[in-house]
Amino acid sequence: MANEALKVLPLGGLGEVGKNMMVLETDEDIVVIDAGVLFPEDDMPGIDIVIPNIDYLVENIDRVRAILVTHGHEDHIGALPHILKTLPVPIYAPGMAMALIRNKLRERGLLREADLNLVKSGEQFRFGNTLEAEWFDVCHSIPDAMGIALRTPLGTVVHTGDFRLDNDPTLGEPTDFARMAEIAADGVFLLMADSTYAENEGYSGSDREVARTLHEVIGNAEGRVLVASFASQIARIQMVADAAVAHGRRLAIVGRSMINNLKISRDLGHLNIREETLISARDALGLPDHRVIYMNTGAQGEPQSALARMAAGTHNDVDIRDGDTVIISATPIPGNETAVSNLINDLVEQGAHVVTHNTRNVHVHGHAAREELRAVHNLLQPRHFVPIHGEYRMLRAHVDLAIEHGVHEDDAFLLQDGDVLRLTEDTAEVVEQIPAGHVFIHGHGVWDEHGNVIVERRLLARDGFVVVILGRDSGGKVVGRPRIVSSGFVHYAEADALFEDAVDELDTVLDRDSDTYIQWNEVEATTKKTVGRFFSQRTRRRPTIIPVAFDV
Question: Catalytic residue positions?
Answer without folding.
Answer: 194, 367
